[in-house]
Amino acid sequence: MNQSKMRLALISAILSTALLSSLTQAQSSNVSVSVGPNTMNPVIVTANRTPTAASNVLADYDYIGPEEIAQAGQTSLVELLQRQRGVEISSYGTGGSIASVFLRGTSNAQSLVLIDGVRTDSGFTGGPSWQAIPLALIDHIEIIFGPQSSLYGADAIGGVVQIFTKQGEGPAKVSASTGYGTYGTTITEASIYGATEGEQKIRYSLSASQNLSMGFNTVADNNPCNPSTQSKKSIAKNCFYGALPTNRTGYGQDSITGRASQEWMQGQELGVQFLQSRLNNQYPGNAPDTYAPATMNNINDLGTYSVYSKNQLTQSWKSLLQAAQSIDNGQQLTPTTNPVNNTKQNILTWQNDIAIGPDLLQILGERRSQNVFTNQINYNTTYLPENFNQTRNTNSVAGAYQLKRGAHLANLSLRNDNITGYGSQTTGGAAYGYFFTKAFRGNINYSTGFRPPTFNDLYYPGYGNPSLQAEKSRNTEAGLHYEEATYELHLVGYTNTITNLIQYSSIGCPPGYFGCASNVANAKINGASLGASKQLDNFNVKGSFDQQNPINQNTGTVLLKRARQFGNAAVEYRAGSLTTGAGVTFSGQRYDYGNTGLGGYAIFNLYTNYDVTKDWSIFGRWNNVTNKDYQLTYGYNTPGSNIYIGARYAMK
User: Which residue, of 36, 222, 232, 448, has the fewest CB within 10 Å?
Assistant: First the structure.
């Protein structure tokens, strides 16, 4: 038996002993019940750009709390998002591989991602590098559905995902965890956080993590480039890039995040925060010149940095001034070339919240400067590396009004984004809510959004099309919500119409191009989303179901990689020192490029945690219990049945 197997067997034996002890304790007559922090009716920041009780949020939302993240084990960020209402994903295999997230049927590039209030995305393809965001350093996540461009500007057609890292409060505390699992996966993280006492309070936090995995073979039997299952004739006909290797591909990730702030006077706070992550991921490929199989490496450097000042200027006027920078740099290491895709954004934001009685007026000004550089191969004309270096600036002004009158709630918002060298875009939103009872309310919303072409779409050598127009959306939705201390129910119906979809086409291309980016399609996404949760003594039960019809109106086909039905169900049991739970994630059939079918699937997961002492605990997670063979991208394997076991120290 090798050392890895011995280590796994030892940890498994320890966990089994602890679980047997905890089950005996749970069966005794003196069981103490603990349901943990109540994540129902949390405070939501993203929906209105200001802290708002969830019961007063009119946008459709979902919330992932610290406990659910702590229970994730070896789960990647996108796999955790997959277990939420209204969210679908795709990936190319391992946790370090390129991944996409689809909010209510929209594409990966049609959603905006913020890390501690700082926008992060790739200027080339749109959307963030999900695989480079470290789940172990995240405190909680907010998901806001539907177009949010009137609050956040470009790209927020499907919604906004905001990721919050840990922040300090109270006496100094430390926490750390480590574990080992299938595919030689190890995840180690440590944090220190807290705040000083007194009037000039200093808050601080610092966290670091490392994630290593030997990975698995991601090339499936049906991959058209798989030399193990496809004939040379078939590969020559169906696989432009030649044969792919069929050995395992692993990854390594090192990440650090921190923040510090001082309240130098009452209501006056100055702070800094940052996140830096570096991912080295292997992936199957081929040598560009010989098309011989080769294992490639992709390096992702992701970073967000900001300095901010929060100021209570008067009793009714709060100001937030923030200067931020984000980077999303990627480099491919191949046998012959090492092309890069580098994105840098500088963002200056001034937000003013002015209380007018029970209402709130919000006025915002923002300037964003994007720069990209790449030296990728032009596969359309010259077949040689070509450089391009482009910059564009966006100047924005926005206003919003939040009204509250007894049982009535209303939000109005309007924003203008002026993109230099491209044009001006104006978006707006209106929402109304009514409380039938204290716990039961309804709402109706209308909002618009836009997504400008990426730098790839506009300028990439041999593909870019400078005449492209922005994608635009119009969304109407209505919802019914019931929320009390131990029970939640959300039912939302929506229609999102998207025009000027940007897709690859041979229509309207510059001379000499075989194909280019073009505005050749429109989409309409109709759907209904149902979510519920209930606490029953020691048990917490929750589930969701989404029925949608994401249609390309020009072809009448379902949008790629999106299902008509998908959902989740989970049950958790808490008693004394024991927490244990089970869940299932399921999806209907989807289609990938070339109209290739992706079958439906259901994935079953188990997890458990046992508090050995006040501060020490051991935990385990078993993902894909039934070893379901399914694909999120045609021709690429997903993780099989995998187990992860670890220990955690957290000062309480």
Answer: 232
Distances (CA, A) of 336 to 236, 311, 519: 22, 53, 35
pLDDT tens-digit map of 568-619: 999 999 999 999 999 999 999 999 988 889 999 999 999 999 999 999 999 9
Whether the Cβ atoms of residue 442 and residue 434 lie closer than 8 Å to each other = yes
Within a 10 A sphere around the Cβ of 435, how many other Cβ atoms?
Answer: 16
E strand segments, 266-316: 268-286, 293-314
DSSP 487-547: EEEEEEEEEEEEEEEEEEESTTPPTT-S-EEEEEEEEEEEEEEEEEEEEETTEEEEEEEEE
- Strands of 65-201 (E only): list them: 87-91, 99-103, 111-115, 118-119, 138-145, 159-165, 173-181, 185-195
The torsion defined by the Cα of 295, 297, 298 and 301, in degrees rounded to 10, comes to 160
Cα separation, 83 vs 508, in Å, equals: 40
Which residue type occupies 96? G
Short-list 530, 499, 419, 520, CA closest to 157: 499
Q: Is 579 helix (H, G, I), strand (E, B) or coil?
A: strand
Burial group, residue 22, by CB count within 10 angstroms (0-12, 13-18, 19+): buried
DSSP strands (E only) in 36-82: 43-44, 52-53, 61-64
Q: What is the pLDDT of residues 353-383, one digit of tens each?
A: 999 999 999 999 999 999 999 887 776 666 7
* CA atoms of 229 and 242, how far apart (whole Å): 14
- CA dist list (Å): 271 to 30, 206, 268: 47, 14, 10
Q: Report the distance separating Cα 543 and Cα 269, nearest Å.
A: 40
Rg (CA), the chain: 25
Within 13 Å, how many C-alpha atoms sit on residue 251's CB side? 28
> The whole model's pTM is what?
0.92
Phi–psi pair at 16, nearest 5 degrees: -60, -45
Q: What is the DSSP letter of 559?
A: P
Q: Which of 141, 170, 144 is nearest to 156 (CA)?
A: 144
Cross-strand bridge partners of residue 346: 325, 369
